[in-house]
Design goal:
74% helix, mainly alpha, 7 helices, two-stranded parallel sheet
Length: 140
């Protein structure tokens, strides 16, 4: 999993726990609201919990919604192909709704389309793809 950050104490620990809880809340909102990302908030929450609370980090890793995605990132620094498809589909859906149906000014619609295109390119070309089935990857 790489080098774990050194846990903090005192007020810094409290701030990391609070930030982690806020990030988990934003991640849950991102899971149900198109246009709000989920993955960055989950990763940030994991970092905050690793700096403050091993118990909360373990809880996040066991999460039925975020656990597999987070474990894949920590263990393999990438995403599985089905998760990438879902991410691209959600970006496309949010972009299509925003650009096509929201009645926004043309400049804003172009900016949204460009941001969505960048997001799709990052997911497809920058984030590494974990090859093989879950059982094959977990066995390595």
């Amino acid at each position: 999993m790489g080098t774990e950050p050194k846990p903090t104490t005192g007020i810094v620990r409290v701030l990391f726990v609070a930030a982690g809880v806020v990030c988990v809340g934003l991640a849950y909102l991102g899971a149900i609201l198109p246009g709000l990302p989920t993955t960055p908030w989950v990763l940030l929450a994991s970092y905050c919990f690793s700096r403050s609370s091993p118990r909360l980090r373990a809880w996040l890793l066991r999460s039925p919604i975020f656990g597999k995605l987070l474990r894949d990132w920590h263990e393999h620094r990438g995403m599985r192909r089905p998760a990438k498809w879902v991410a691209v589909a959600m970006i496309a859906a949010a972009c299509t709704f925003s650009v096509g149906f929201a009645g926004l000014p043309d400049g804003l619609r172009i900016a949204i389309a460009v941001c969505c295109s960048v997001g799709v390119c990052v997911v497809i070309f920058v984030v590494p793809t974990i090859r093989g089935s879950a059982s094959e990857v977990d066995a390595t």
